[in-house]
Design a protein that fits this description.
Order of helices and strands: EHEEEHHHEEHEEHEEEEEHEEEEEEE
Radius of gyration: 20 Å
Number of helices: 7
Shape: globular
Number of strands: 20
Mean pLDDT: 96
Helix content: 10-25%
Low-confidence stretches: none
Number of domains: 2
Strand content: 35-45%
Amino acid sequence: MKLHPLKFSPIFKERIWGGNKLQTMLQKNSQGDAIGESWEISDVKGDPSVVATGKLQGKTLQELSETFQAALLGEKVYNAFGTKFPLLIKYIDAKSDLSIQVHPNDALAKKRHDSFGKTEMWYVMQADEGAELIVGFNQEVTKEDYQKHVDNNTLTNILNFEKVEKGDVYFLPTGRIHAIGGGIVLAEIQQTSDITYRIFDWNRVDAEGNSRELHTALALDAIDYTLHKNYKEEYTSEVNKTSTIVDCPYFTTNLLPLQGEITLNHDDKDSFVIYMCVKGNVSFQTEDYQETLSFGETLLLPASIKNATVIAEEASELLEVYIK
């Protein structure tokens, strides 16, 4: 059987901080008023993505990786990761603040959890007026300073809050403390890992009066205490041209604003390419296959498919993700 551009059925995650914008704004077929995440492409154990359309409908991402190997993943990606798909792709709706958290690096995650670390990035798709997120520190902090603030329940005094709007991009290498604030919808690209150390949860309790587990001790050695002058990524944007917004060893993400018709050529890449539609609607055409990609949908272009035509009848924007 031949590979074609792949759309997967979203996996919805109910969260204490979730809302209904994935349904109302992104037109997801989700049920409930607390859906926080739509996992678009997942090879996380227990949460496999399943192909939604085409001749490969019903196949899991893991099955495709095992069957097609380098043809799906790319030779270098397959050599590095085997059949384990290396990225987890999500849309997130934060109705209220997420917990303040940090992710361990590869070495620490391997040692403690036999897992990859979790480097990630955010692309803000919508933000209510005044919406904020937390990235990094607002002052020089030592491990001892940090511990004192945790003990005194004053952690937020030393954290960097940033007001955000559509199009803002934040890169979150492992060790960088962070939290998405209420009123924000974003696209998240990350390593395939579900390892999160929760540091502070705003003293929240569930319906039974229970608070969620904190990982204070584990986080101490995982945090990067470095102070940075800027946390937001700066980038340029030009219609029908790709602009790099994040480039790291784990993934490269470009922004592609579209109007009309363009041809994509990926002869220079030895990797699958993922497209997330963060504005408008487009049509993808390959040699023998056509697929629509609407606002809030995601497409996986296998590594063996090097050319595609994309048609946008309205002003649209795609995130283009691959591994160098």
